[in-house]
Each structure stands twice: as C-alpha cells, then as structure tokens.
Amino acid sequence: SAVISQKPSRDICQRGTSLTIQCQVDSQVTMMFWYRQQPGQSLTLIATANQGSEATYESGFVIDKFPISRPNLTFSTLTVSNMSPEDSSIYLCSVDRGGSGNIQYFGAGTRLSVL
Amino acid sequence: ELKVEQNPLFLSMQEGKNYTIYCNYSTTSDRLYWYRQDPGKSLESLFVLLSNGAVKQEGRLMASLDTKARLSTLHITAAVHDLSATYFCAVDIYPDKLIFGTGTRLQVFP
C-alpha cells in the first residue's frame, strides 16, 4: 500500500477564487493521478501527472482550469481555478506503486464546496 | 464511448443473505479492480483481477472476471452490517488509466 496525505481535507470557497490541493506520498512514485468525484457520483480522471513532464489531461478538463504541478517524485498539487458552484466535488489524488496489478492507492480526498 | 456500468445501483439486503453485484464494460481490458468506499472516506482497494477467469476471495467477498463477456462480478456471502458501503469496479483501458463504474451502494440491515 501507500501512505498518501492530502491537504486540505475540506474547504469552503467563494466563487471566482482558486484553491490549491496538495498530495504528498510516503515514497517515490512515477505516476500520480487526480480524480474528481461529484456528489453521489463515481470518479472521473482529471489528469495524470508524471514528474518532469506536463500533466496529461482527460477530455473535458483543461490546464487553465486545473493546473497541476509535479515538482518531484513524492509531491503534486492540483489547483482549481476561478471556481464556480459546479466545481463543488471531492478531489482525490492517487498513486501507482507499480508491482503486481498496478493497484492505484488513493488519498483521503479534499471535499470542496463553492458558494 | 467507453462505459462501465454496475448493477444494481442500490442494494438493500438483509444480514445473512447472498447477493451479486455486476460490472459490465464496453471495451477490451484484461485488468479490473474493485474498490470500497465508506461514507466520507476515500477508496480502499479490494481486488485486482488480471486475467480471464481470475477469481479472488477475501472474507465474505469474492470477485471474478470474464474478459470475453466483459463482465466482472462481486459476490457477497452471508452479508453483515460491516459490508455496508459503496462498491466501485474500475477498468484499466491502458496502463494506469482507470475508468470507474457507476458504483453500487450497499446497505445491510439486521
């Protein structure tokens, strides 16, 4: 498994502001992932973040709205920019530690409410 | 469009009963995961199924994979209250890109 720390655990933000979410892993990993889980819904992959390269975004997600940094092999940030109430969701980071099955392990998530 | 569908979406079952959750997916994949999510919590990995015919069991849960039918099942035996949670399947469509199913919310009552 992996120990993944996400900060903040929750936040309430005003429309038009930005929030940066941090994800720290207890060991070096090549790939980190960011997901969004809208209320009562499943998880949707936002982007994949590899150290030393730009993040790869999924359809429907753009860098201007969700800029991602990956400065080293244990840390990543996701910023939710110019927020609107539609951005209210849980944002989760995950990592793939490699090995058999390439299981992704998830952080506890950041519960974001936008007023 | 890739779809990963689970049924049922909601399941209320009595303790001691058996039931099966189904996960159907619309593209080729030979790697499938099951996760559990408790209310307000993150996801916990339950099983990874890596090949056609794979079967994994842990306690009262057993998962299987039929890649030809593009179907995975999660079977619950003699349910207990502690199994109440939301269960997600996720399909790996190329290395490390997971597409999650719709989720099945399970409630076990006495």
Describe this structure in words.
The complex is a heterodimer of chains A (115) and B (110). Chain A is an all-beta fold and 115 residues long. Chain A contains no helices and eleven strands. In chain A, strand 5 (43-50) and strand 6 (56-57) form a beta hairpin. Chain A is globular. By secondary structure, chain B is mainly β. In chain B, 0% of the residues lie in helices and 59% in strands. Chain B has no helices and eleven strands. Chain B has strands spanning 4-7, 10-14, 19-25, 32-37, 43-49, 55-58, 61-66, 71-76, 85-94, 97-100, 104-109. In chain B, the strands form two sheets. In chain B, strands 2, 4, 5, 9, 10 and 11 form a six-stranded mixed beta sheet that branches. In chain B, strands 1-3-8-7-6 form a five-stranded antiparallel beta sheet, with no helix packed on it. Chain B is globular, with a radius of gyration of 13 Å.
Strand-helix topology:
The complex is a heterodimer of chains A (115) and B (110).
Chain A: E1 4-7, E2 10-13, E3 19-25, E4 31-37, E5 43-50, E6 56-57, E7 68-72, E8 75-80, E9 89-96, E10 104-106, E11 110-114
Parallel strand pairs in A: 2-11
Antiparallel strand pairs in A: 1-3, 3-8, 4-5, 4-9, 5-6, 7-8, 9-10, 9-11
Chain B: E1 4-7, E2 10-14, E3 19-25, E4 32-37, E5 43-49, E6 55-58, E7 61-66, E8 71-76, E9 85-94, E10 97-100, E11 104-109
Parallel strand pairs in B: 2-11
Antiparallel strand pairs in B: 1-3, 3-8, 4-5, 4-9, 6-7, 7-8, 9-10, 9-11
Biggest sheet features of chain B: 6 strands, mixed
> Helix segment count of chain A?
0
Oligomer: heterodimer
Approximate helicity band of chain B: under 10%
Given the helix and strand composition of chain A, which structural class is it? mainly beta
| Largest interface between protein chains, with number of residues from each side | A-B, 21 and 21 residues
The outline of chain B comes out as globular
Unreliable stretches of chain B: none
Mean pLDDT of chain A, rounded to whole units? Answer: 93
Secondary structure tally: strands of chain B: 11
Secondary structure tally, helices of chain B: 0
Distance between the termini of chain A: 36 Å
Strand content of chain B: over 45%
